Amino acid sequence: MTARRIGQRLAALALFALAAAPLAARAADGTAFYAGKTLTYIVATAPGGSYDFYGRLIARHMAEHLPGVAVVVRNMPGKGHLLGADALYEATADGLTIGTFSTGLIYDQLIERPDVRFDLSRMSWIGKAASDPRILIVGANSPIHRIKDLHQPGDPFLFAVSRIGSLNYNETKILQAVLGFNARIISGYRSTDDELAIENRSIDAVFGPKSLYGSFVATGKGRAVFQIGGSDPDVPQLSDLIRRKGSADAKSVVALIRSQAELARLTAGPPGIPAERLDALRTAYRTALESRELQEEAAKASRPVVPFAVGDDVAREVSAALDQSPATIDAIAQTFLAAPPALIANAPRTKPSITPVPAR
Length: 360
What we know:
Blueprint: H1 3-33, E1 38-43, H2 49-63, E2 70-75, H3 82-89, E3 97-100, H4 105-110, E4 124-130, E5 134-139, E6 157-160, H5 167-179, E7 183-187, H6 193-199, E8 205-209, H7 210-218, E9 222-228, H8 238-241, H9 248-262, E10 264-269, H10 275-290, H11 292-300, E11 309-310, H12 312-322, H13 326-337, E12 342-343
Helix pairs in contact: 1-10, 2-10, 5-9, 5-13, 9-13
């Protein structure tokens, strides 16, 4: 490297240090505020499960970087994460209440669901802990091999979802609508019940986060037909499959789902947290996620924490996800106007006949 280039780099580093110094000082002031205080971390689900795991993991390790703070995790399940998200949004903006909820609430805000009281574009974004690609999985011996197979006429394919309003319910409904799958959605599946249903062929497929269903594929019990996001070279990207023949609405909706996949395991606070306290929270969050202890604990539980992002980077991603065309918003809204899916209790007891289609 030439002397000139060295000088330029040193000058750039000096400018960066000058710019970062006030931020560091502000974060230090904010950190001091938390000594002797109680920080409440809201998890918009019941105890147990992936959201609760990430929430407790992050809250506990953040506390290690806010000396003197006590952290309380408060589970607030209900209304498909709406209850917890509304409570978080309306909390006092003193920096003492933060939390996590599903990125699927972006869909609820886009269609202006009446009981949504939050505005995600105004929240105080602290960070995201991971990305979570979506995959469509079927049984290892399923006749479904390609997206084209899902358009066969006749008896509909049965898709499992957990509950109305859940992330996989929302995204399965949206994909079925914009891509025209010959599918019937059955709700009410909990834990790994949907995987067992695929094994016994009472259900054909499930669409959802790879963090939940990747192990089902890895054990050889299932196959991934396509992915949204992710980097598995053996599984086609849905965006590539619809690039030529898909409608503009379908392409936009798949791009929106991909943006949700990139925004997994969020942590946020209500609007208006004082800047120095928000900087302290973001610094504690970054330091926690970079720590070897958190990384090892997450890896042991097979819960990815990469790639994570902090602060304004997350705010920009959320704003981009909310910036959708009227046509895309209308396409999403129309899927939620349809009749709700059948419950497991009302689902067919026997597998409908399916014409086998050989792989190509």
